[in-house]
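Anyone else keep sequences and structure tokens together like this?

Example one:
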Amino acid sequence: MESSTTKSTNEQLRELVEEAGLTQAQALAAFNDGLGPASYSMVTWKAFFASPDSKKHRKLKPALLAHAQAKIRPLKK
């Protein structure tokens, strides 16, 4: 369980995309760059942003957050 001061990987992803000034579609395109057949769909991508109370919520693995940071940070406006 995460402490109240530790942000979840999902929260960190949300902040990353907001700080970069990208739409979800733009962020997903950057995230999928280089993943080939392992690319994520928009439905799955949006599940990473869903409320933890939602049935659609999907936990973002730390390795995927690291990948997102590597692909999205350079695009920060």
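And example two:
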Amino acid sequence: MSVLVTPAYGIDKLDKGTGVEDLRKMFPDAKTDPLNFCMFSTSGTHGSYTTIEEIEEALDKDGPQTLTVLVVQPRTVRMLYGDIWVTADDIEFLKALRASSKSSVLDWYEE
């Protein structure tokens, strides 16, 4: 018999180079729910307050930029955090993910 044991909680760092790819795997359609959502520009000890819009403006003149993200999974008490590289191809996905996350969190509090 095989038993899969997962930790009761976890805090993991996203890889800077594959962070957006990891977000796309977790949220393939940029759709979140109250138990799996993403926050941006959270700063703290792992990043900055730089917004998606500020990165979008800087991409043309400065190339790829980093964005601070925090994925929250309350049911499993898991968080993933980090500063991730963002390119122009990622902007629309990240904006959609942010909008969906905001809606998911607000829905959670309205239940």
